[in-house]
Write the structure tokens for this entry.
Amino acid sequence: MSGVMVVSAVFPGIDWAKEIIIDTGDYIINYLRSKGLEPEVLGKYMVRKPTLSNRLRRGSAGFIIYIGHGLAKSWTGSIRLGYDISIMGALVKDVNDYLLSNRIVYSCSCDSLRELGPSAVKKGCIAFIGFDRKCLVREDDFDNDNLIDVVDVLSVPVRMLINGFSVKHAVDAFKIGCLWYMEFADRGSEYYNTMKRNMEGIGWVGDGDAKLF
């Protein structure tokens, strides 16, 4: 593996998912450094299409980690959904997802496994891990003790891949992590349902046997 890029993108101003995006990004970056890897980092408030496109064109990172907002066809980065995205353009969508070719991607964002992942794989992306539905965090329902549980689970695919496991094993480990936390939650609670929904939503396209090392 030639390197790791971490893209952690939030909206300027009010962003309901700001804390989970920043905390997950920081957790992953610190973990990578603890393993002797210095990731290329792009974030947090001014992540725009030209910047990421240039980084992907110039860089050699073989593992791309995106943590932020997304739609079925795109990563939205630091632009708000609706009017802004139509003017500014999404970070990555079908017109430039070829930039993910020859890379393994972990897309920690809503809906991106539905269309962006398959499109990127058709254009040469080795494997794409993502979610086929809304990736729930429900920060308004979590106390500070529970937020770290979500951060922990969201970082599992990265830890698995960095330690030499395959894409499909990384996804399986995420699901096991969700199940483990669900064992300690009240069935039907927001916490339980969030873990359950994320467990059911994660998946991969491309080469499930692919490894970073």
Remarks:
- The beta strands are 4-9, 40-44, 63-67, 70-71, 74-75, 104-108, 127-131, 202-206.
- The chain has a mean pLDDT of 87.
